[in-house]
Amino acid sequence: MSAAEPHIKSAQQSENAMSESQSMLLNLEHVSKIYGDLHAVDDLSLTVPEGEWLAIVGSSGSGKTTLMNIIGCLDAPSKGSVSLEGRKLEDLNASQLADVRKNVVGLVFQKFYLVPHLTAVENVMVAQYYHSVVDEQQALDALEQVGLKDRAHHLPSQLSGGEQQRVCIARALINCPKLILADEPTGNLDEKNERIVLDLFRKLHEQGTTIIVVTHDALVASCAQREIMLNHGVLVGEKWNDENAKAEYEAQGGKPASTGAQVEGAQSGDEAKDFVDPTKAAKHRGSLEEGRHNA
Ligand SMILES: Nc1ncnc2c1ncn2[C@@H]1O[C@H](COP(=O)(O)OP(=O)(O)OP(=O)(O)O)[C@@H](O)[C@H]1O
Protein backbone atom coordinates (compact mmCIF):
# COMPACT_ATOMS: atom_id res chain seq x y z
CA MET A 1 0.00 0.00 0.00
CA SER A 2 1.50 3.36 -0.96
CA ALA A 3 1.77 6.16 1.55
CA ALA A 4 -0.82 8.10 -0.49
CA GLU A 5 -3.45 5.33 -0.31
CA PRO A 6 -4.78 6.05 3.17
CA HIS A 7 -5.38 9.64 2.05
CA ILE A 8 -7.13 8.48 -1.11
CA LYS A 9 -9.25 6.10 0.93
CA SER A 10 -10.22 8.71 3.46
CA ALA A 11 -11.11 11.14 0.66
CA GLN A 12 -13.32 8.45 -0.89
CA GLN A 13 -14.83 7.64 2.46
CA SER A 14 -15.72 11.23 3.12
CA GLU A 15 -17.12 11.50 -0.43
CA ASN A 16 -19.27 8.40 0.22
CA ALA A 17 -20.39 9.79 3.56
CA MET A 18 -21.25 13.09 1.89
CA SER A 19 -23.22 11.45 -0.92
CA GLU A 20 -25.03 9.29 1.64
CA SER A 21 -26.09 12.29 3.71
CA GLN A 22 -27.06 14.14 0.51
CA SER A 23 -29.28 11.28 -0.69
CA MET A 24 -30.95 10.98 2.71
CA LEU A 25 -33.92 13.16 3.48
CA LEU A 26 -33.35 12.74 7.19
CA ASN A 27 -30.15 12.10 9.06
CA LEU A 28 -29.99 11.73 12.84
CA GLU A 29 -26.53 11.49 14.35
CA HIS A 30 -26.19 10.42 17.97
CA VAL A 31 -29.39 12.15 18.98
CA SER A 32 -30.40 12.24 22.65
CA LYS A 33 -33.22 13.96 24.50
CA ILE A 34 -32.53 14.14 28.19
CA TYR A 35 -34.92 15.19 30.96
CA GLY A 36 -32.99 15.23 34.25
CA ASP A 37 -31.87 11.62 34.67
CA LEU A 38 -34.18 10.30 31.99
CA HIS A 39 -32.87 9.66 28.48
CA ALA A 40 -36.14 9.76 26.50
CA VAL A 41 -34.06 9.21 23.34
CA ASP A 42 -30.57 7.88 23.93
CA ASP A 43 -27.79 8.33 21.38
CA LEU A 44 -29.77 7.26 18.34
CA SER A 45 -28.45 7.36 14.79
CA LEU A 46 -30.86 6.89 11.91
CA THR A 47 -30.99 7.81 8.24
CA VAL A 48 -34.13 7.90 6.12
CA PRO A 49 -33.95 8.26 2.34
CA GLU A 50 -36.49 10.28 0.41
CA GLY A 51 -39.54 8.17 -0.39
CA GLU A 52 -39.18 5.67 2.46
CA TRP A 53 -42.08 4.56 4.64
CA LEU A 54 -40.73 3.99 8.14
CA ALA A 55 -42.57 2.89 11.28
CA ILE A 56 -41.33 3.64 14.80
CA VAL A 57 -42.66 1.13 17.31
CA GLY A 58 -42.09 0.46 20.98
CA SER A 59 -43.91 0.27 24.28
CA SER A 60 -45.42 3.27 26.02
CA GLY A 61 -42.75 5.70 27.18
CA SER A 62 -40.08 4.27 24.87
CA GLY A 63 -39.42 7.66 23.26
CA LYS A 64 -41.40 7.44 20.02
CA THR A 65 -43.22 10.76 20.30
CA THR A 66 -40.10 12.49 21.58
CA LEU A 67 -38.24 11.30 18.50
CA MET A 68 -41.11 12.32 16.23
CA ASN A 69 -41.17 15.81 17.74
CA ILE A 70 -37.43 16.17 17.14
CA ILE A 71 -37.76 15.06 13.51
CA GLY A 72 -40.71 17.43 13.00
CA CYS A 73 -38.77 20.44 14.36
CA LEU A 74 -41.24 20.69 17.26
CA ASP A 75 -38.48 19.99 19.75
CA ALA A 76 -34.68 20.15 19.75
CA PRO A 77 -32.40 17.33 20.85
CA SER A 78 -30.26 17.74 23.98
CA LYS A 79 -27.32 16.24 22.09
CA GLY A 80 -26.54 15.15 18.56
CA SER A 81 -27.38 16.47 15.17
CA VAL A 82 -30.47 16.32 12.91
CA SER A 83 -30.35 17.11 9.18
CA LEU A 84 -33.40 17.44 7.01
CA GLU A 85 -32.88 17.84 3.25
CA GLY A 86 -29.17 18.23 4.00
CA ARG A 87 -29.70 21.21 6.34
CA LYS A 88 -28.58 20.86 9.92
CA LEU A 89 -31.54 21.90 12.06
CA GLU A 90 -29.27 23.11 14.87
CA ASP A 91 -27.87 25.74 12.50
CA LEU A 92 -31.30 27.21 11.73
CA ASN A 93 -32.88 30.12 13.57
CA ALA A 94 -36.49 30.10 14.79
CA SER A 95 -37.96 31.51 11.60
CA GLN A 96 -35.95 29.13 9.39
CA LEU A 97 -37.14 26.23 11.55
CA ALA A 98 -40.73 27.44 11.19
CA ASP A 99 -40.22 27.46 7.41
CA VAL A 100 -38.98 23.87 7.47
CA ARG A 101 -42.01 22.88 9.59
CA LYS A 102 -44.30 24.64 7.17
CA ASN A 103 -42.77 23.59 3.88
CA VAL A 104 -41.18 20.20 4.38
CA VAL A 105 -43.23 18.48 7.05
CA GLY A 106 -46.90 17.54 7.28
CA LEU A 107 -48.10 16.46 10.72
CA VAL A 108 -50.91 14.01 11.49
CA PHE A 109 -51.82 13.27 15.12
CA GLN A 110 -53.95 10.69 16.91
CA LYS A 111 -56.06 13.48 18.40
CA PHE A 112 -57.39 15.27 15.38
CA TYR A 113 -57.12 18.87 16.62
CA LEU A 114 -59.86 20.07 14.29
CA VAL A 115 -61.55 23.37 15.13
CA PRO A 116 -65.06 22.23 16.17
CA HIS A 117 -67.02 25.20 14.81
CA LEU A 118 -65.33 25.18 11.39
CA THR A 119 -66.37 22.89 8.53
CA ALA A 120 -64.01 20.33 7.00
CA VAL A 121 -62.98 22.65 4.19
CA GLU A 122 -62.52 25.57 6.60
CA ASN A 123 -60.32 23.40 8.81
CA VAL A 124 -58.13 22.67 5.81
CA MET A 125 -58.12 26.38 4.98
CA VAL A 126 -56.78 27.13 8.47
CA ALA A 127 -53.65 25.25 7.42
CA GLN A 128 -53.52 27.31 4.22
CA TYR A 129 -53.67 30.44 6.34
CA TYR A 130 -50.31 29.51 7.85
CA HIS A 131 -48.94 29.26 4.33
CA SER A 132 -50.40 32.65 3.44
CA VAL A 133 -52.40 31.13 0.58
CA VAL A 134 -56.08 30.79 1.30
CA ASP A 135 -57.67 29.08 -1.65
CA GLU A 136 -60.94 27.22 -1.16
CA GLN A 137 -60.61 25.29 -4.41
CA GLN A 138 -57.20 23.97 -3.37
CA ALA A 139 -58.65 22.97 0.02
CA LEU A 140 -61.50 21.17 -1.75
CA ASP A 141 -58.95 19.41 -3.96
CA ALA A 142 -57.09 18.24 -0.85
CA LEU A 143 -60.36 16.90 0.55
CA GLU A 144 -61.04 15.18 -2.76
CA GLN A 145 -57.62 13.53 -2.52
CA VAL A 146 -58.71 11.89 0.74
CA GLY A 147 -62.14 11.02 -0.66
CA LEU A 148 -64.08 13.61 1.33
CA LYS A 149 -65.20 16.25 -1.15
CA ASP A 150 -68.85 15.48 -0.41
CA ARG A 151 -68.24 16.08 3.32
CA ALA A 152 -66.48 19.43 2.79
CA HIS A 153 -69.19 21.51 4.44
CA HIS A 154 -69.78 19.27 7.44
CA LEU A 155 -68.62 20.17 10.94
CA PRO A 156 -66.21 17.76 12.69
CA SER A 157 -69.07 16.64 14.96
CA GLN A 158 -70.95 15.53 11.81
CA LEU A 159 -68.02 13.38 10.65
CA SER A 160 -66.95 9.92 11.76
CA GLY A 161 -63.56 9.47 13.44
CA GLY A 162 -62.12 8.11 10.21
CA GLU A 163 -63.46 11.05 8.24
CA GLN A 164 -62.04 13.50 10.78
CA GLN A 165 -58.64 11.85 10.47
CA ARG A 166 -58.88 12.14 6.68
CA VAL A 167 -59.58 15.88 7.07
CA CYS A 168 -56.39 16.03 9.15
CA ILE A 169 -54.48 14.25 6.39
CA ALA A 170 -55.92 16.70 3.83
CA ARG A 171 -54.77 19.52 6.13
CA ALA A 172 -51.27 17.99 6.33
CA LEU A 173 -51.15 17.69 2.53
CA ILE A 174 -51.86 21.35 1.91
CA ASN A 175 -48.18 22.26 1.65
CA CYS A 176 -47.35 19.19 -0.49
CA PRO A 177 -44.88 18.06 2.18
CA LYS A 178 -41.97 15.77 1.33
CA LEU A 179 -42.32 14.19 4.74
CA ILE A 180 -45.50 13.12 6.51
CA LEU A 181 -45.03 12.52 10.24
CA ALA A 182 -47.94 10.66 11.74
CA ASP A 183 -48.19 9.95 15.46
CA GLU A 184 -50.62 7.07 16.10
CA PRO A 185 -52.72 8.17 13.09
CA THR A 186 -55.11 5.26 13.45
CA GLY A 187 -55.12 5.10 17.25
CA ASN A 188 -58.73 6.28 17.48
CA LEU A 189 -60.08 4.43 14.46
CA ASP A 190 -61.89 1.17 13.93
CA GLU A 191 -60.49 -1.41 11.52
CA LYS A 192 -62.43 -0.17 8.51
CA ASN A 193 -61.29 3.42 8.92
CA GLU A 194 -57.78 2.27 9.78
CA ARG A 195 -57.66 0.56 6.40
CA ILE A 196 -58.92 3.67 4.61
CA VAL A 197 -56.21 5.78 6.24
CA LEU A 198 -53.55 3.16 5.45
CA ASP A 199 -54.67 3.07 1.83
CA LEU A 200 -54.25 6.83 1.74
CA PHE A 201 -50.73 6.54 3.12
CA ARG A 202 -50.04 3.84 0.55
CA LYS A 203 -51.17 6.19 -2.22
CA LEU A 204 -49.05 9.05 -0.88
CA HIS A 205 -46.08 6.74 -0.58
CA GLU A 206 -46.52 5.62 -4.21
CA GLN A 207 -46.50 9.29 -5.17
CA GLY A 208 -43.07 9.62 -3.55
CA THR A 209 -43.93 11.07 -0.15
CA THR A 210 -41.69 9.99 2.71
CA ILE A 211 -43.79 8.72 5.62
CA ILE A 212 -42.72 8.21 9.22
CA VAL A 213 -45.39 6.78 11.43
CA VAL A 214 -45.35 6.15 15.17
CA THR A 215 -47.64 3.29 16.05
CA HIS A 216 -48.57 0.60 18.54
CA ASP A 217 -50.55 -1.17 15.85
CA ALA A 218 -49.04 -4.24 14.21
CA LEU A 219 -50.90 -3.78 10.94
CA VAL A 220 -49.93 -0.13 10.62
CA ALA A 221 -46.28 -0.96 11.35
CA SER A 222 -46.17 -3.85 8.90
CA CYS A 223 -47.35 -1.61 6.05
CA ALA A 224 -44.10 0.36 6.36
CA GLN A 225 -41.00 -0.68 4.43
CA ARG A 226 -38.89 -0.61 7.60
CA GLU A 227 -39.68 -0.70 11.29
CA ILE A 228 -37.44 0.38 14.11
CA MET A 229 -38.22 -0.49 17.71
CA LEU A 230 -37.31 1.67 20.69
CA ASN A 231 -37.18 0.71 24.33
CA HIS A 232 -36.30 3.28 27.00
CA GLY A 233 -35.03 5.57 24.27
CA VAL A 234 -32.62 3.11 22.70
CA LEU A 235 -32.90 1.15 19.49
CA VAL A 236 -33.63 -2.51 20.25
CA GLY A 237 -34.52 -3.68 16.77
CA GLU A 238 -34.72 -2.89 13.10
CA LYS A 239 -36.75 -4.89 10.61
CA TRP A 240 -37.22 -4.47 6.87
CA ASN A 241 -40.59 -5.51 5.48
CA ASP A 242 -39.56 -4.66 1.92
CA GLU A 243 -36.37 -6.35 0.75
CA ASN A 244 -36.19 -4.24 -2.43
CA ALA A 245 -36.31 -1.05 -0.39
CA LYS A 246 -33.60 -2.46 1.86
CA ALA A 247 -31.37 -3.28 -1.14
CA GLU A 248 -31.93 0.21 -2.56
CA TYR A 249 -31.17 1.79 0.81
CA GLU A 250 -27.93 -0.15 1.14
CA ALA A 251 -26.95 0.67 -2.44
CA GLN A 252 -27.34 4.35 -1.52
CA GLY A 253 -24.89 3.79 1.33
CA GLY A 254 -27.61 3.68 4.00
CA LYS A 255 -26.55 2.06 7.25
CA PRO A 256 -28.57 0.23 9.88
CA ALA A 257 -30.00 2.44 12.59
CA SER A 258 -27.96 2.28 15.77
CA THR A 259 -27.70 3.29 19.36
CA GLY A 260 -24.36 4.24 20.85
CA ALA A 261 -25.66 3.96 24.40
CA GLN A 262 -24.31 0.93 26.26
CA VAL A 263 -27.63 -0.41 27.49
CA GLU A 264 -28.72 -4.03 27.65
CA GLY A 265 -30.58 -4.93 24.46
CA ALA A 266 -29.33 -1.87 22.59
CA GLN A 267 -28.09 -2.46 19.07
CA SER A 268 -25.09 -0.93 17.42
CA GLY A 269 -25.06 -0.63 13.65
CA ASP A 270 -23.08 -3.84 13.17
CA GLU A 271 -25.40 -5.87 15.33
CA ALA A 272 -28.78 -4.49 14.33
CA LYS A 273 -31.12 -7.39 13.82
CA ASP A 274 -34.76 -8.14 13.32
CA PHE A 275 -36.99 -7.87 16.32
CA VAL A 276 -39.91 -9.97 17.32
CA ASP A 277 -42.77 -7.76 18.33
CA PRO A 278 -45.07 -9.62 20.71
CA THR A 279 -47.96 -7.38 19.67
CA LYS A 280 -47.66 -8.76 16.16
CA ALA A 281 -49.65 -11.83 16.97
CA ALA A 282 -52.62 -12.73 14.89
CA LYS A 283 -54.59 -9.55 15.66
CA HIS A 284 -54.45 -8.10 12.21
CA ARG A 285 -52.81 -10.74 10.13
CA GLY A 286 -55.98 -11.62 8.28
CA SER A 287 -56.92 -8.04 7.57
CA LEU A 288 -53.36 -7.24 6.50
CA GLU A 289 -53.41 -9.93 3.88
CA GLU A 290 -56.79 -8.75 2.73
CA GLY A 291 -55.61 -5.11 2.70
CA ARG A 292 -52.60 -6.03 0.56
CA HIS A 293 -54.75 -7.94 -1.89
CA ASN A 294 -57.10 -5.00 -2.18
CA ALA A 295 -54.23 -2.50 -2.63
N1 LIG B 1 -41.39 17.28 28.66
C1 LIG B 1 -41.02 16.17 29.32
N2 LIG B 1 -40.45 16.26 30.54
C2 LIG B 1 -40.04 15.14 31.21
N3 LIG B 1 -40.16 13.89 30.73
C3 LIG B 1 -40.73 13.75 29.52
C4 LIG B 1 -41.19 14.87 28.76
N4 LIG B 1 -41.70 14.42 27.59
C5 LIG B 1 -41.58 13.08 27.62
N5 LIG B 1 -41.00 12.67 28.78
C6 LIG B 1 -40.68 11.30 29.15
O1 LIG B 1 -39.91 10.73 28.11
C7 LIG B 1 -40.22 9.36 27.95
C8 LIG B 1 -40.60 9.11 26.49
O2 LIG B 1 -41.86 9.75 26.26
P1 LIG B 1 -42.59 9.63 24.84
O3 LIG B 1 -43.83 10.43 24.92
O4 LIG B 1 -41.62 9.98 23.78
O5 LIG B 1 -42.91 8.08 24.78
P2 LIG B 1 -43.81 7.29 23.73
O6 LIG B 1 -43.02 6.11 23.31
O7 LIG B 1 -44.29 8.20 22.67
O8 LIG B 1 -45.02 6.84 24.67
P3 LIG B 1 -46.58 6.60 24.28
O9 LIG B 1 -46.58 5.41 23.39
O10 LIG B 1 -47.19 6.31 25.62
O11 LIG B 1 -47.10 7.83 23.64
C9 LIG B 1 -41.34 9.05 28.93
O12 LIG B 1 -40.78 8.45 30.08
C10 LIG B 1 -41.92 10.42 29.26
O13 LIG B 1 -42.46 10.44 30.56
UniProtKB/TrEMBL annotation:
It holds the Pfam family ABC_tran. InterPro entries: AAA+_ATPase, ABC_transporter-like_ATP-bd, ABC_transporter-like_CS, ABC_transpr_LolD-like, MacB-like_ATP-bd, P-loop_NTPase. Keywords: ATP-binding, Hydrolase, Nucleotide-binding, Transport. This is ABC transporter ATP-binding protein. The keyword Nucleotide-binding applies. One of its GO terms (molecular function) is ATP binding. Residues 246-295 are annotated as: Disordered. GO terms for cellular component: membrane protein complex; plasma membrane. Residues 286-295 have a biased composition (Basic and acidic residues). It is an enzyme of class 3 (hydrolase). Its EC number is 3.6.3.28. PANTHER family: ABC TRANSPORTER ABCH.1 (PTHR24220:SF86), IMPORT ATP-BINDING PROTEIN (PTHR24220). Residues 26-257 form the ABC transporter domain. It comes from the Bacteria.
